[in-house]
Fold:
Amino acid sequence: MSRGSAVPSSSQLSRRRFIAATGIAAGAVALSSSWVSAAAAPRRALNTGDRVPALIIGSGYGGSVTALRLAQAGIDSHIVEMGRDWTTPGSDGKIFTATASPDKRGYWLRNRTKQPVSNFLGASIDKDIDKYAGILDAENMGAINVYQGRGVGGGSLVNGGMAVTPKRSWFEQILPSVDANEMYNTFYPRANATLGVTNIDQAWFESTDYYKFSRVGRKVAERSGFKTTFVPNVYDFDYMKQEEAGAVPKSALDGEVIFGNHHGKKSLPKTYLAQATATGKVTISPLHRVTKVAPAPGSGYGVEIEQIDEQGNIVATKTVIADKVFFAAGSVGTSKLLVSMKAQGHLPNLAGAVGQEWGTNGNVMVARANHAWDATGSKQSSIPTMGIDAWDTNGVFAEIAPFPAGAELWISLYLAITKNPERAQFQFNSSTGQVGLSWTQAQAQKSIDLAKVVFDKINKKEVTVYRSDMFGSNKVWNDGLTYHPLGGAVLNKATDNYGRLNGYPGMYVMDGSLVPGNVGVNPFVTITALAERNIANIVANDLH
Ligand code: FAE
Structure:
C-alpha cells in the first residue's frame, strides 16, 4: 500500500491503472536494468514471487532516509514494517491511546502494560490489556527492557522528539572512520532540515505554566554549578502555543508522547516518509515481519516474511526476491536478524563484529522530590526541551523530563545519558532458535555511579531527596530500561565505512546498529545523519 499525501499523484494513479489493466505486477520487460527495476516494484503489499529492486526492513529513521534518497535517485523500494500503519482511529475516534491510561494500542503484543515509570507511592500502575500490535514495544532482552516504536515511522512515533547533535569531539571518538567535517557541514544540517528540527521560543518557555517543570529543573541544576542547555525538537512549537491558547486540539499539552501524538510532532510519516511516498516510488507493507534473508539462486536475496494480524497471529508467510536489501530494523531488530542468519548458515560470511558493541547509551532514570515551594506544575508539556549538560565534567547529559500526571506532584524526573563504557553482544541460542543479549544488570552500575554524582550534589544543595517509589518499591534508579539501543552492527567493523555488509554485495545496514553503544546525546539525529551520509555514497557508487 502507498502512504503519504492522501491524494495520489497522477503518475501514481496512471501506474496503478496500468498495473490493474494489464495484470502486470512483476517486471517482464528487459530493456535496461533501471527500467526492469521500475517495472518490478509492486504497488501493493508484497506477495510471494515478487521481485523488488530494493527491500528496506523497517520504517524508522534509517529506513525512511533510505527510501527517500533511493526514490530521488529513481529507484523503487519496498519497505517491510512489522508494526501497524497508525492512520486509522479506534472505536473512540482516536488513533492513539491516552497516555494516562493506555489500552491495547499502547503496547506491542503484551497482556499487561510495562510502564517506564511503573509505580507510584510504591504501588504498581501497570494493568492488564488485550494483546495487540500496539505502538510501544518493551522488548525484554534478559537484564534489560528495550523500549522501541512499532509501526510505520518506527521510533519517531513514540519518542520525545529531542533532536540533539552530539559534541563533535565525542562523535570523533566513537566513529573515527567518519569524516567529521562532512558530517557537521553537510549531513547533520541535511538531517535536521529534513526532520524539521526547531527550537522553542525562549520567551514563551519562560512564561508558560507548561514548562514550569523545566525551569525548576534548570534552577536547581544551576544552583549546584551544572550547565543547562535548550534542546532542539521536531515538535511544532507554534502549534504548541496554539494548544495553550485553546485554538487547536491539545497533543503535547495533553501529555501525548510515548503512545503517539495526534498533532504537533513531526514524526517520520510527516517528514521523510511523506516525501518518499509522494514520489510514487515507495510502497510499504505494514504488519509484515522479515524472518530470513539469504542469497537467492542466480542473483539478489531471498527474503522470508511473516504477515501478522493485529493480534500478532501469523496469517501468511511470503518469500520475495530483492536485488538489494537494506537492514533498518533498529539496533535490536537488525542485530537479531544478522546474528541469527550468520549462526544458522544463511549468511555465513558476515563479519565476526556482527552482534558486538551493543550499548544502552548509558540510559538511567531517576526522580527527585522537590520542596513545596518548588512546584513543577499540574500542567506539563510532554515534550522535553532542556538538558543538564555535565558531559565533559561528569559524563552525564540528563534530559529534564516531564511527568505529566495532571496533578501537582513536586517531582523532577530525569532520563540521564551517561558515559557508560559497558558493551554487550547478541548471541544465537541454537536450542531455542532465539537471539539473546549478554547485557547484565551489573553493567548498568556505571550509569548509576555517574548520574549519582550529579543528582547527589543537587539533592545536597537543595536539601531534597530521591523518590524511591516510582520504579518499584524502594528503588531509586531505573537501570533496567533503555530508550536508546545502539550498536550490534558497528560501522567500519561489521560493515564497511558506509554500511555495506562485507561478503554480501547489495546488502546494507542503515540504522542505529551502526553506532557503537553510546552517542552521548539522544540518538535519532545522528542515526538520520549517518544514514544520509551512507546512502549518498551507496547511490553514487553502487546504484548507477
Ligand atoms: P527504529 O526507529 O526503531 O525503526 C526500526 C523499525 O523496524 C521499527 O519500526 C520496527 O518495528 C521495525 N522492525 C524491527 N524488526 C523488524 C523485522 N524483522 N521486520 C520488519 N520490521 C521490523 O530504528 N531519540 C532521540 O533522539 N530523541 C528522543 O527524544 C527520543 N525519545 C525516545 C523516547 C522513547 C519512549 C523511545 C522508545 C525512544 C526514544 N528515542 C529518542 C530513541 C529513538 O526513537 C531511536 O534511537 C530511533 O528510533 C532509532 O532509529 P532506527 O532507525 O535505528
